[in-house]
Amino acid sequence: MSTSTVLETEEHQALRAAVAALGKRFGRDYMTRVTAADGHPEELWAEAAKLGYLGVNLPEEYGGGGGGISELSIVLEELGAAGSPLLMMVVSPAICGTVISRFGTEEQKRAWLPGLADGSRTMAFGITEPDAGSNSHRITTTARRADDGSWVLTGRKVFISGVDIADATLIVGRTSDARTGRLKPCLFIVERDTPGFERRQIDMELQAPEKQFELTLDDVRLPAEALVGDEDAGLLQLFAGLNPERIMTAAFAIGMGRYALGRAVEYARDRTVWQAPIGAHQAIAHPLAQVHIELELARLMMQKAARLYDAGDDVGAGEAANMAKYAAAEACVRAVDQAVHTLGGNGLTREFGLASLIAGSRVARIAPVSREMILNYVSHQSLGLPKSY
After folding, report:
1. Measured between alpha carbons, how far is 290 from 356 in angstroms, rounded to an integer?
2. pLDDT tens across 124-142, in order?
3. How would you classify the pairing of strands 142-145 and 151-161?
4. DSSP E strands, the chain
5. What is the pLDDT of residues 279-337, one digit of tens each?
6. In this structure, what are the phi and psi dihedrals at residue 214, rounded to the nearest 5 degrees?
7. Which burial class, exposed, middle or buried, applies to 348 when counting CB atoms under 10 A from its CB (0-12, 13-18, 19+)?
8. Distance of alpha carbon 214 from alpha carbon 197, whole angstroms
9. What is the pTM of this model?
């Protein structure tokens, strides 16, 4: 048993074991076949939904499991460790489901949460822009009120995952404060077939079931009730989704790293070139042991972040979520690199399923926020150092 699972409740350990069993039923081969066929992991998504895993963090009164990000991160980590992670879990139940359950109107909750919980509906999340990245202070997608009370959105988004399969996208825009004239962030539900809402798939070298899109909002007219939460809440509502996003990205990275490490350990235990298996040699064993330590430490920080968030400590969770995402991404990249190195040429074959993770593991360093921006956050917020920008 790993050190961090000892700290979990019996319910969490049972959830972890059950999801791991589901993941093994599908595994890396399933995800590889889906990706090669340019498809989506619909069977795994449906099965996870049927078992209650997709909505484990959503309120029970809307069809969810009544848990939190702690439980949802376990689900994603274990699916990743089995080689079949579901990236849209980061977006649909974690970001969008959390924001709507915390700040949505009763009508929005009833319209979206049951479907997000049972997997029949999915949502994408649109924040990143060509000139602003994920900097919410520089977002140029703007929303203005029309005379009839509706909203009109204009702007662009890039690298938005899963828009082709999502029923709607939660768009981060900015409205003008009539008192100050300054722009403030707001969230809008934009359904897929809304006039003026166009998408273009980005040609990615990275092969994954979840495609990336550029979005164009050309005077997209939305009803007044498309606004999620309070127009004046601003960053509070935005970070209600971004903190779970970072925690779930950490879970995604840790799961991927565990999968890579598992394949490397299995190979090192069985592969014999001289008199003993190659795993008996410290040049092979020690780097794998180091990777295991780093993954365990990252998971502990992820668990801390999830518990703080579920307890309602948004400030504490913000710091811990950023640290968890940073630590998990670094550990994941090193795990994949060391796994490929352990297998040598075999690490680049389709048979062992590691080569595709070389690019995939880098995503955790880049998205949803780069490691450099996390270091900025920690240096400013945690250490109190001055900004250079």
Report:
1. 22
2. 999 999 876 556 667 889 9
3. antiparallel
4. 123-126, 142-145, 151-161, 168-176, 183-191, 197-201, 212-222, 227-228
5. 999 999 999 999 999 999 999 999 999 999 999 999 999 999 999 999 999 999 999 99
6. -100, 135
7. middle
8. 11
9. 0.94
Buried b (16+ CB within 10 A) or exposed e, 160-179: bbbbebbbbbbbbbbbeeee
DSSP 277: B
Q: Which two tokens stand for residue 330?
A: 């670094």
User: Measured in whole angstroms, how far is the alpha carbon of residue 157 from the centre of its chain?
Assistant: 18
What are the distances in angstroms from CA 174 to CA 159, 161, 184, 197, 348? 19, 21, 5, 17, 45
Length of the chain (residues): 389
How far CA 234 is from CA of 113, 190, 321, in Å, comes to 22, 18, 20
Contact 75, 15 (CB under 8 A): yes
3-class secondary structure, 29 = helix
CA 170 to chain centre: 15
Using DSSP bridges, classify how beta strands 183-191 and 227-228 pair: parallel, antiparallel or unpaired. antiparallel
Burial class (CB in 10 A: 0-12, 13-18, 19+), 241: buried
Amino acid at 38: D
For residue 260, the one-letter residue type is A
DSSP code of residue 378: I
Burial class (CB in 10 A: 0-12, 13-18, 19+), 370: middle
